[in-house]
Amino acid sequence: MDKIWIDTARKNPSVYGGTSYSSIENSFVKDGALVQRISRDGKDVIESDLMTKERMMYKYGYLEVRIRLSHNKGSWGALWMMGPATGTTMGEVDIFENFGSLNSLKSNLHTWGPGDEHENILGGKADSILNFSPGTTNPEPYSDNYHTIGFEWNKGYMAFYLDGVKHTEYSYDSVKYDCFDKPFYLLLTHWGGEDIAAFANCILPDDFKYSDIYYDWIRIYQTDDSSNILYVKE
């Protein structure tokens, strides 16, 4: 993990009057899985925030992750990717986010720029991908069992999967949105309790102590093609 993942050193105000900040100590291996923990220390919230920037980047292929999400309402888990700026625009791919919910998540695309402006390309209601008990319409928490989340990426096309079933796909203009055809780096984040508007649904309970997300593995499959890129820093 030390060779690929680095802490992003985020720092924001917390809803408790202290600080929400990331610590590499809140990312650790337990029972063969990578654990991302958020914990509370008085007024402070300690988060887990890892990225592969400048250490590992890739373009095109199929990425799949096996994950068990938090059992605490309010935690915001995400696996996402960012790419370099193309002119004034950067691309963002949210392979999944769960926005403080227990039984639903969302996948999305964004462009950022110029400045702080952004455009939401792939629409859809937040927390729109519900986890149903097999053979029922009863949503159940993603923390009950491990699930696989997949991301397919080819030039001009992206698709998102849950447990092998495609739930969202998008074809984009590779000229207009060429920011999505550059090598991207990965981010693994587990946030919660930050005092900003975007975290309105991610407020942790007053008696909150800690919450864990488990990553069993992350795999990237690519074809033997010159358009595919996988960069790993020695």
Please give the structural blueprint.
Blueprint: E1 6-7, E2 11-13, E3 19-22, E4 27-30, E5 33-41, E6 44-51, E7 56-59, E8 61-68, E9 76-82, E10 90-97, E11 104-112, E12 118-120, E13 129-130, E14 147-154, E15 157-162, E16 165-171, E17 185-191, E18 210-221, E19 229-232
Parallel strand pairs: 3-6
Antiparallel strand pairs: 1-6, 2-3, 4-5, 5-6, 5-18, 6-17, 7-19, 8-14, 8-18, 9-10, 9-17, 10-11, 11-12, 11-13, 14-15, 15-16
Question: What does this protein look like?
Answer:
This protein has no helices and 19 strands. The protein is mainly beta and 234 residues long. The strands form two sheets. The chain has a 17-stranded mixed β-sheet that branches. The protein has a two-stranded antiparallel sheet with strand order 7-19.
Report, as a whole number of angstroms, the end-to-end distance. 13 Å
Q: What is the arithmetic mean of pLDDT? A: 87
Report the helical percentage.
Answer: under 10%
Strands, count: 19
Strand content: over 45%
As a whole number of angstroms, the C-alpha radius of gyration is 17 Å
* SSE string: EEEEEEEEEEEEEEEEEEE
Please give the count of helices. 0
The residue ranges in which pLDDT falls below 50 over 5 or more consecutive positions are none
Class from helix and strand fractions: mainly beta
